[in-house]
């Protein structure tokens, strides 16, 4: 589905680089089929050297012949970018936005009618091809558009689709989730140091254990409680450790953290503002 398509990326930061490298590494696209635009001239050489793809400061010119356009800019810059590309973008081009807290409706209101928009919420492990990306489609995007976006993000990890009204929860769980994991990872490593294990080995033990546990959950599809019980022998040391975690409120604290982050994500959703009607009236 992606073969033969031309991809344009607006904003070539770390996440966008990871997407491009994933696509090129797996042979999904050729370098000549990928181009990007950056804001500053000093970034041009970085992109050409690291990715081997064409880069430009001229966003409208770059997107003109592209089949898929990824908006990888900061949320506060989405309106400005939409204004720039509005006279150029066509209904046969797919727009994929990875701008956090920017709804599909916000983007659709700033582009010509019938331009399909898909919203994506990836997370930082995408830079090592172990990301979790959640997709939702706008009002004019089809299942085929969603499938095309899914194929792109599968090259940097796993992909799920969801209704857009649940995206604040996604932001809080998988978007912010790596930070929760890193805090737990750091705490486990600190515990190892407290017990006399060298820092580098302690961090390795904690990180690989977290990775292995996650992989076990994904591949077996067993409920976490069942997997937990597999480790917990009667009157063993694990149950004593779990007792301390429950007594410290770890379970409830993690749940409350995700709920609180979701509330904040809802507050940060880019509010409606009047789009530039000059372009839209000429569409």
Automatic annotation (TrEMBL):
Keywords: Amino-acid biosynthesis, Cytoplasm, NADP, Oxidoreductase, Proline biosynthesis. Pathway: Amino-acid biosynthesis; L-proline biosynthesis; L-proline from L-glutamate 5-semialdehyde: step 1/1. NADP(+) binds at residues 10-15, 72-75. It comes from the Bacteria. InterPro entries: 6-PGluconate_DH-like_C_sf (IPR008927), NAD(P)-bd_dom_sf (IPR036291), P5C_Rdtase_cat_N (IPR028939), P5CR-like_CS (IPR053790), P5CR_dimer (IPR029036), Pyrroline-COOH_reductase (IPR000304). Its EC number is 1.5.1.2. The keyword Translocase does not apply. GO terms for molecular function: pyrroline-5-carboxylate reductase activity. Residues 6-100 form the Pyrroline-5-carboxylate reductase catalytic N-terminal domain. Gene3D superfamilies: NAD(P)-binding Rossmann-like Domain (3.40.50.720), ProC C-terminal domain-like (1.10.3730.10). Residues 164-268 form the Pyrroline-5-carboxylate reductase dimerisation domain. GO terms for biological process: L-proline biosynthetic process. Belongs to the pyrroline-5-carboxylate reductase family. This is Pyrroline-5-carboxylate reductase. It comes from Chloroherpeton thalassium (strain ATCC 35110 / GB-78).
């Amino acid at each position: 589905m992606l073969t033969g398509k031309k991809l344009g990326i607006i904003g070539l930061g770390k996440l966008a680089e990871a997407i491009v490298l994933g696509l090129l590494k797996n042979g999904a696209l050729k370098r000549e089929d990928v181009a990007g635009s950056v804001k500053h001239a000093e970034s041009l050489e970085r992109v050409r050297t690291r990715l081997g793809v064409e880069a430009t400061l001229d966003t409208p010119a770059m997107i003109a012949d592209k089949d898929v356009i990824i908006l990888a800019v900061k949320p506060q810059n989405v309106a400005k970018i939409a204004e720039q590309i509005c006279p150029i973008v066509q209904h046969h081009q797919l727009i994929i936005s990875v701008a956090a807290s920017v709804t599909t409706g916000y983007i659709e209101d700033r582009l010509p009618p019938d331009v399909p928009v898909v919203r994506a919420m990836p997370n930082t492990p995408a830079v090592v091809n172990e990301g979790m990306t959640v997709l939702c489609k706008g009002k004019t995007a089809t299942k085929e558009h969603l499938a095309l976006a899914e194929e792109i993000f599968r090259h940097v990890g796993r992909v799920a689709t969801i209704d857009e009204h649940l995206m604040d929860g996604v932001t809080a769980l998988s978007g912010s989730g790596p930070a929760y994991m890193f805090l737990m990872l750091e705490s486990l490593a600190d515990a190892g140091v407290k017990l006399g294990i060298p820092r580098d080995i302690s961090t390795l033990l904690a990180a690989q254990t977290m990775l292995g546990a996650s992989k076990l959950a994904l591949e077996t599809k067993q409920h976490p409680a069942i997997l937990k019980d597999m480790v917990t022998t009667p009157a063993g040391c694990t149950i004593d450790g779990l007792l301390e975690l429950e007594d410290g409120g770890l379970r409830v604290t993690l749940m409350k953290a995700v709920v609180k982050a979701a509330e904040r994500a809802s507050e940060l959703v880019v509010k409606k503002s009047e789009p530039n009607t000059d372009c839209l009236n000429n569409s």
